[in-house]
Amino acid sequence: MDYQIVLKIDKEKDAWNWWHAANHPSHGVAWSERIAQREIKEIIGLDQATAGNILLPFLDKYYQENQDLLNSQLKVGQDLFNQKGQAAINKVVEIFGRPLYRDNFVGFLTTFPRCPYNYEAGYFWLCALWPAKCYLGTFLHELLHFQFIFYYQAEILPLLGKEKFERLKESLTVILNDEFRDFLCQSDQGYAIDQALRQRLFEKWQEDKSIDRLIDFGVMLTVDSKLSTK
I want to staple 51 with a disulfide (CB 3.0 to 4.6 A). Which of 43, 111, 128, 141 is the partner? Predict the structure, then answer.
């Protein structure tokens, strides 16, 4: 089966990432602290519409000044997906033993150093400031999230609760460092608060490489544990 992955430049999607990052800390990271531009720090604490009045003019200027860079990142990234995307996705299908939950995805370049996703729409964000050769690895990270949510969330979320479910979801991407090395430009690091859990999961994965048994093991580790949020 052929899967469609299209990369786009969308200023409004970029602005949303700036605003959301500035006002929603997650996974032990205060994203607002990564805003270096003095004029943009004003968006902290604002609603999305008000923040947009600050962000959109700022991004207009940035896009005009960096048009060649953004277009280059878009082209290099799209070429990468065209060349290796199908093989990488087929590997995900093989590991899960189940089809993808959808057959089309859209990636948006963002000028903020955070790469969120939208599961329902099949959206993912790619940082335009990072090497485009790393974009496929970022997509695979999100694709593992998508598959985990689609096939396991209904059963596991009631057992773990939202916080622990998210911690397990983020930690499971450690298997990229074993099965997907050929598609990565660097190892999948995960968040600092999840390193101990990721190590346990990686060791379990290498025992038999069964995604179902790995997730069962992950649930066992997290269901009764007191995971640190610091």
Answer: 43
Q: Which residues does residue 117 pair with via DSSP β-bridges, in sequence order?
A: 124
Tens of pLDDT, residues 31-51 = 999 898 888 899 999 999 999
Instruction: Please give the backbone phi and psi of residue 229, each rounded to the nearest 5 degrees, phi first.
Output: -105, 10
Domain boundary, last residue among 110, 143, 176: 143
Which of 227, 223, 226 lies closest to 156, judged by CA?
A: 223
Question: Which pair of structure tokens corresponds to residue 30?
Answer: 């205060």
Q: Give the tokens for residue 161.
A: 């609760």
Q: Which residues of 159-189 are buried (b: 16+ CB within 10 A; e: fewer)?
A: ebeeebbbbbbbbbbbbbbeebeebbeeebe
Q: Is 150 left (phi over 0), alpha (psi -120 to 50) or beta?
A: alpha
Pick from 219, 180, 179: nearest CA to 200: 219
Query: Within a domain: residue 228?
Result: no
3-state secondary structure 46-102: CCHHHHHHHHHHHHHHHHHHCHHHHHHHHHHHHHHHHHHHHHHHHHHHHHHCCCCCC
Q: Does pLDDT of 26 surpass 90?
A: no
Predicted TM-score (pTM) of the model is: 0.94
Q: What phi, psi does 189 have (nearest 5°)?
A: -90, -35
The sign of the CA dihedral 61, 121, 175, 162 is positive
- What residue numbers bound the domain in which 32 lies? 4-143
User: Which two tokens mark 56?
Assistant: 């959109």
